[in-house]
Amino acid sequence: MEVVVAKSAGFCFGVKRAVDRVYEEVEKHSDQPIYTFGPIIHNEEVVCDLEEKGVQVIDSEEELKGLEKGIVVIRSHGVSRNIYELLNRPGIQVIDVTCPFVKKIHRIVDEQSKAGYRIVIIGNAKHPEVQGIIGWSNSEAFAVETDEDLDRLPFFEKEKVCIVSQTTFNYKKFQYFVEKISKKGYDINVLNTICNATHERQVEAKQIAGQVDGMIVIGGKHSSNTQKLFEICKKECYNTCYIQTVEDLDLSWGESLKKVGITAGASTPNKIIEEVQTKCQS
Ligand code: F3S
């Protein structure tokens, strides 16, 4: 079987930077409790490995408020302004590994909302990155992911509206919503904040999926960027499967296939991609 692995598969720059930093902190501060606010990445293996090294995941603001001391890592998704305020107290050290591309969106939203623009984020309102972005707006901000969300926007004609995107959002869907919003008569300022890493991974996945008999998408089941990769690949190649680790790969799946493509979401370690590739070639 011929196996083609996407060059852009796996950790993006922001996730690699965040994960490496947590491992560095573990090395440097074995004497202090280390927490991450939410799992550092959508990958159970990595999160479990860190847990074994003493890194605990904090899931709620309540838990954050209850901390008396320790190091709190803010992951690449970023957080709202009020979380920084909450952590700004004696005994707590903050390690901020928010991806610089997400930080840029925070700055845009802060500045534009101060300048009187209403903020629209094209993305999933429940995603932590979007919740963080919303938390930098100085007026109520709105996430749009469906036509219904669009219809609920409470803006009046000619109102100033700034549109940004969740970094991992699908480019075509972003364009679709921007086009619809632009017909509503607002005074819009569109900033495409989709991260290139995601776009490049999607373009390459589509291109490979169009040339193979079977496609394997690797990633955590809660990872939205992996789910999107799967959607894109499935459209090009019906025989696309979604796995989390090499154990999920059923060898009978690929028995009759001559050429198989592999891609992986932003939170998938290289080690897993290599294991899948090896299994396919064995
Ligand atoms: Fe950052 Fe882009 Fe990754 S925004 S976290 S480099 S997907």
Structural commentary:
The chain has 282 residues and is of the alpha/beta class. The protein has three domains: 95 residues, Cobalt-precorrin-4 Transmethylase, domain 1, CATH 3.40.1010.20; 86 residues, Rossmann fold; 90 residues, Cobalt-precorrin-4 Transmethylase, domain 1 (3-Layer(aba) Sandwich). Helices cover 41% and strands 20% of the residues. The chain contains eleven helices and twelve strands. The strands form three sheets. A four-stranded parallel β-sheet has the order 1-12-10-11, with helices on both faces. Helix 8 links the parallel strand 8 and strand 9. It is flat and about 60 Å long. The termini are close together. The model has no long low-confidence stretch (mean pLDDT 94). It binds FE3-S4 cluster. The site of FE3-S4 cluster (F3S) has 14 residues, from helix 1, helix 5 and helix 9.
User: Helical content, roughly?
Assistant: 40-55%
List each distinct ligand once.
Answer: FE3-S4 cluster
The strand line-up of the biggest sheet is 1-12-10-11
CATH superfamily of the largest domain: 4-hydroxy-3-methylbut-2-enyl diphosphate reductase, catalytic domain
User: Structural class, from helix and strand content?
Assistant: alpha/beta
Total domains, how many? 3
**Global geometry:** flat
Taken as a percent bin, the fraction of beta residues is 15-25%
In CATH, the topology of the largest domain is named Cobalt-precorrin-4 Transmethylase, domain 1
Enumerate how many helices there are, as a single number. Answer: 11
Radius of gyration: 20 Å
In the predicted model, the low-confidence regions spanning at least 5 consecutive residues are none
